[in-house]
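Field reference: sequence -> structure
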Amino acid sequence: MMISKNKYSTTELTRKLQKESLTDFDCGNPALSAFLSSSQALDNSFGKTYVMLSGEKIIGYYNISTGHIEISASPEAIRAGGTVYVNCLAVDKQYQKIKYTETEYISDILLADCIKRVLYLREYYIGFSFISLASTAEGHYLYERNGFFDIEDDMKITKNPGELTCTPMYFPLDYE
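Structure field:
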């Protein structure tokens, strides 16, 4: 099944949207599902949350903030560059297998929207070199097929407490 290109929009999460459009969001990961209804999803000191809507229903979301990547070097770590850190990205279970085009799923479109927003921030507001995140096992293939790499052995990103079992990944914005 494919979804029509005109049936979705992405916007910043507001208290009103959270209250009225979040009736049954379930991505299959209890922590990611719960985040969207939490006060932290609206807390600008944690990050900024954007939601993908199909009509009035939230079908996916992402939350972005800032961070950095370090490279281990004797005797100290060296900051390799700033990042926009994707705290969360999730799609409702009902939409996880729905194709947007012949080759792209809704999750690809949501991630593309996130990357587009990050590139806009980079172009007009603040500089950074990477997009980073900590992927669940279920999300790893999504990020990998969209150009993300596992953090290398000599690199490090800071994870949130609930991400200790996740795989750190990065997307370089400057290829040389």
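Note: The first strand starts at residue 9 and ends at 12.
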